[in-house]
Design brief:
By secondary structure, this protein is an alpha/beta fold. It contains 14 helices and 34 strands. The strands form seven sheets. The protein has an eight-stranded mixed beta sheet. A hairpin with a 7-residue loop joins strand 31 and strand 32 (655-660). Helix 2 packs antiparallel against helix 14 (711-743) and helix 3 runs antiparallel to helix 4. The protein is elongated, with a radius of gyration of 39 Å.
Length: 747
C-alpha cells in the first residue's frame, strides 16, 4: 500500500510540536533553586516532586502529540490499498469502498440515430438503468446531460437508486450538439460535495468527434488542473461509445442551414429562402422538401431532392410572400423516404414583416420648391403621396431641428447633406444607432469635412464607417464624372442589383462624390459598392447594436441622375430595410447567449414580464427592459437550441420568435480518431472503452481502490489526547495541593 497527503504544505504545522518544549525551557530559566538545610528531612517531599515532574513530562508529551495530530489531520493524509496481480483492489474485509459516480449522458441529436430500432441513446439509458440497480448502500450517483450547455438531471449526488431511475424517465429529447469538456468540468464540481473515498466519472456517448473538442488543447489543460484540485478524491474518467449499428442501408438527410437575405420585409414583398440539405448516411437520400410559414406548408412549394450521395449536399431555393405584419416562422421540412435521424429534418428561422416602417429623414438643405430638397426624392420613393398604405412611414425634419425626441420610435434615420451637428445631436444619433437603429448618411456639397472626420469618424471609432477624402466633380456643371459599377455590388442590400447583363444602376450618372477611406478598426468597414472609377460608392459597418451605411454622393437630382433611374425605388427600399435589420438577417444566437426581442408595441407600465415558450415546450416569464423609448424582452441563458416563442404582452397580442442555433457540424458523423483519443487520455486517468463490458470491468477495478482518508481517525485521536491532557493537568494540580499537607508534620 502507499501513503500520501492531500495538502502537503500543511505539514509545516508539525513545527508546532516544539511549542510545549520551548515554553517548558523558558519556564525553567525563570526558576531559582535555593539550598535549605531542612530539606534533608523532606524525603517524602522529594518523592512527591519526582512524581510531579513525571506528570509534567507526560503532560508536555501529550500536548506535543495533540498539536502533531491536529497538524496531520489538516494535511489530509490518506492511504491507497494494495492491488493484486489481476488489478482488483484488495479492500479490507473483502468488500469494496463506497463510491461517488457522475454519469454524463450525451444529449446531442446524433444520439438518436436509429438502426433496427436501436440508438446510442437507448443503449446508454439501458446501461444507466443497470448501473442504478447495482448501487450498494453508501454509493451515490449524479446524472448530467451534455449539450451545448450542461443540464443536471439530478439534484447533485444522490444515495437513492430510485431517484436515478426517476431521472431517466424525464430525460429531455436529444437536441443540438454537446460539449464534453464543459460536462467533465461540471462533474468535478459535483464530486466536490461527495464524501466517499472512491470517485468516478462515466461518459456515455456515440463516439462522435465534435463533442470532445480535440482541437482545443487549452480546455483540456484546464480540465487536468481542475482534477488536481480534488486532491485525494480525484476521479478516474471512463468513456464508452455506443455507436449506431453498422449498416449499408438508410440515409440521413438533414436541413443544416436556412437563410434569407435579411430579416425584415414589407408586406407582400418577395422573400428568397435558401437552404442546404446534406446526407450523412451510408446510402443515397431521396426526399421531398417543402417551405413552411408558421408551421404550415405553402402550397406549390414541394420539391424533389436526390438522390444525394453519402456525404453530399443539395441546395434549395424558395420564393414566397407574407401579407400579415408581425413576426413569422419560415421553415424547410423534409418528408418521404426512410431516414436514420428524424430530428434534423426541419429547420426554422424567424422573419419580421414590418407595416409602415418608421423612418426619420434629416434634411441638410431643405428646398423651397417641390423635389428641390435633399430628401424629397427619397421621401417620394419610400412613401408616395398617392399610396394610402405605404411600406415606410417617413417623417422629415431639418438638420437644425434634429433632437433625441425626433428619433424616438424610429427604426432608421437618413442624414442627407448635413453641414454640421452640435454635441447633443451627435450624442442622440450615436445613442440611436448604438441601441440598434440604422443610419444612412448621404454626402453632398455642404458637408464640413473637418467636422465629419474629427467628430463622426473619430479615427475609425465613431459613427462613420469611412473617412472623407477630397471631393470629385461639381454639381453646378452637371457633368457625369462616374457611374456605379454593379459588378462590384455585394451584400444582401446591393448584391441583387448587380445581376443581369445590363444592370440599370450602371447607367446612373454621378455629378459629384467624395473619395472614401474605409475604417480598418474593429469591426472593419465593408465596401458594398464601387464606382467605375474604382472609388467606394457605399461603405457599411456595424456600430454597437446598430448599422451605418455611408454613400459617397448625394441621392437627389442635384447630385446626378440616380432619382430617375428605374432601380432607384427598389434600391432605397433595400437600403432602408437592410438598416432596419442591423443583425443582417436575424442571425440566430448561440446557446447561452442572451437573446433580446424588440416588442412592436409597448405594454402597460405595470407589465414587467412576458411569457416565453422554450423549444422543450416549457413556459417561463422573461423580464422586460425599457430603454431609449423601446421595450424589449430579455431571454437569459437560452441553453437549448431551437425556436423561442414570446407571447407579446401589448394590447394587440400576438407572438414574436427568436432563434438559437447549435453547431452546424452536429450533422457530421466523423468519430473520434484513435490517435486523438490517445492524446486526450495521455497523462491522466482518462480511458476510452469500446465495449460496455470493458467499462464495467474498469469500474469494478476502481471501486475498492480509492484512497482511504485518515483525517477522521486523527481528529478522534486528537480528541482522546485532549481528554488525556485534561486528566494529567488535574492530576498535577491535586499533587501540588497535597504536598504541603504532607510537609507540615516535619516542618
Amino acid at each position: 500500500m502507499t501513503w500520501s497527503v492531500g495538502a502537503p504544505f500543511m505539514l509545516w504545522g508539525l513545527l508546532g510540536v516544539s511549542i510545549p518544549v520551548i515554553i517548558h525551557l523558558l519556564s525553567r530559566r525563570r526558576t531559582e533553586t535555593i539550598d535549605w538545610g531542612a530539606m534533608q528531612f523532606l524525603d517524602l517531599g522529594r518523592r512527591a516532586q519526582r512524581k510531579m515532574q513525571i506528570t509534567e513530562l507526560l503532560l508536555m508529551v501529550g500536548r506535543m502529540a495533540l498539536l502533531g495530530l491536529v497538524a496531520l489531520a489538516v494535511a489530509r493524509p490518506f492511504w491507497q490499498p494494495p492491488v493484486s496481480e489481476n488489478g482488483v483492489t484488495k479492500a479490507l474485509g473483502g468488500g469494496r469502498a463506497s463510491r461517488d459516480t457522475v454519469i454524463v449522458l450525451d444529449g446531442s441529436e446524433s444520439m438518436d440515430r436509429t438502426v433496427d430500432g436501436e440508438s446510442p441513446r437507448s443503449q446508454s439509458l439501458a446501461w444507466i438503468t443497470t448501473f442504478a440497480k447495482g448501487m450498494k448502500p453508501g454509493d451515490s450517483a449524479s446524472l448530467l446531460l451534455a449539450r451545448d450547455r450542461v443540464k443536471p438531471l439530478t439534484d447533485g449526488l444522490t444515495y437513492d437508486p430510485a431517484r436515478v431511475g426517476d431521472a431517466l424517465k424525464s430525460v429531455p429529447a436529444s437536441r443540438g450538439s454537446s460539449d464534453m469538456t464543459a460536462a467533465i468540468a461540471e462533474s468535478f464540481r459535483v464530486l466536490e460535495s461527495g464524501k466517499n473515498p472512491a470517485t468516478d466519472v462515466v461518459i456515455l456517448t456515440d463516439g462522435q468527434r465534435l463533442p470532445w473538442r480535440p482541437g482545443e488543447p487549452r480546455r483540456w489543460t484546464l480540465l487536468r488542473d481542475l482534477r488536481k484540485e480534488l486532491k485525494g478524491r480525484a476521479p478516474r474518467i471512463s468513456s464508452i461509445a455506443f455507436p449506431p449499428k453498422p449498416t449499408t442501408e438508410g440515409a440521413d438527410a438533414a436541413v443544416v442551414a436556412i437563410d434569407t437575405p435579411r430579416g425584415v420585409y414589407s408586406p407582400n414583398a418577395s422573400i428568397a429562402v435558401s437552404a442546404t440539405v446534406t446526407n450523412a448516411g451510408p446510402a443515397s437520400a431521396s426526399r421531398s422538401a417543402e417551405l413552411l410559414i408558421d408551421g404550415v406548408g405553402v402550397p406549390g412549394t414541394a420539391q424533389r431532392l436526390g438522390p444525394i450521395p453519402p456525404g453530399g449536399k443539395a441546395p434549395l431555393v424558395f420564393r414566397t410572400t407574407i401579407a400579415n405584419p408581425g413576426s413569422h416562422l419560415l421553415g424547410v421540412r423534409l418528408s418521404g423516404g426512410d431516414d436514420l435521424l428524424a430530428a434534423n429534418d426541419l429547420a426554422e428561422r424567424p422573419v419580421e414583416i414590418a407595416e409602415a416602417l418608421p423612418v426619420l429623414l434629416i434634411d441638410g438643405e431643405p428646398g423651397l420648391e417641390p423635389l428641390s430638397g435633399e430628401v424629397d426624392f427619397l421621401r417620394a420613393a419610400l412613401a408616395p403621396a398617392e399610396d394610402e398604405a405605404p411600406a415606410v412611414q417617413a417623417r422629415t425634419v431639418p438638420a437644425s431641428d434634429l433632437a433625441a425626441k425626433s428619433l424616438e420610435g424610429r427604426r432608421v434615420a437618413v442624414l442627407a447633406n448635413a453641414n454640421r451637428l452640435d454635441a447633443a445631436q451627435v450624442a442622440a444619433l450615436s445613442r440611436f444607432v448604438g441601441d440598434g437603429g440604422g443610419l444612412l448618411v448621404c454626402l453632398g456639397d455642404r458637408v464640413d469635412d473637418l467636422f465629419f472626420n474629427d467628430t463622426l469618424f473619430a479615427n475609425g471609432n465613431g459613427l462613420l464607417p469611412a473617412k472623407l477624402g477630397e471631393p470629385r466633380g461639381d454639381a453646378n456643371r452637371r457633368q457625369a464624372i462616374a457611374h456605379p459599377a454593379p459588378r462590384t455590388f455585394t451584400g444582401p442590400a446591393l448584391g441583387p442589383f448587380g445581376a443581369g447583363d445590363t444592370p440599370a444602376l450602371g447607367e446612373a450618372d454621378l455629378f459629384l462624390y467624395r473619395v472614401l477611406a474605409p475604417a480598418t478598426t474593429v469591426p472593419p468597414s465593408a465596401v458594398i459598392a464601387r464606382l467605375d472609377s474604382g472609388d467606394p460608392w457605399a461603405v457599411e459597418r456595424p456600430y454597437r447594436k446598430g448599422r451605418v451605411i455611408l454613400m459617397a454622393g448625394p441621392i437627389d437630382a442635384e447630385g446626378g441622375t440616380l432619382p430617375v433611374n428605374p432601380d432607384f425605388v427598389p434600391l432605397v427600399h433595400e437600403l432602408i430595410y437592410r438598416l432596419a435589420d442591423p443583425e443582417g438577417g436575424n442571425v440566430p444566437a448561440k446557446p447561452g447567449e442572451t437573446v433580446v426581442v424588440d416588442l412592436p408595441e409597448a405594454p402597460a407600465p405595470e407589465v414587467k414580464t412576458a411569457d416565453v415558450t422554450r423549444p422543450d415546450g416549457t413556459t417561463s416569464p422573461a423580464p422586460l427592459v425599457r430603454e431609449s423609448g423601446k421595450v424589449r424582452v430579455r431571454i437569459d441563458d437560452p441553453g437549448e437550441p431551437g425556436i423561442y416563442r414570446v407571447r407579446l404582452p401589448g394590447p394587440s397580442g400576438g407572438t414574436a420568435f427568436a432563434s438559437v442555433a447549435s453547431d452546424a457540424r452536429e450533422t457530421e458523423t466523423e468519430p473520434l480518431a484513435p490517435a486523438e483519443s490517445a492524446a486526450l487520455a495521455e497523462g491522466w486517468p482518462l480511458a476510452f472503452a469500446t465495449q460496455a463490458e470493458a467499462l464495467d470491468t474498469r469500474l469494478r477495478e476502481s471501486s475498492g481502490g480509492g484512497p482511504r482518508p485518515l483525517w477522521r481517525w486523527l481528529v478522534l485521536a486528537a480528541l482522546g489526547g485532549l481528554c488525556l491532557e485534561v486528566f494529567l493537568t488535574r492530576s498535577m494540580v491535586r499533587s501540588r495541593g497535597v504536598a504541603p499537607q504532607i510537609q507540615e508534620p516535619g516542618a
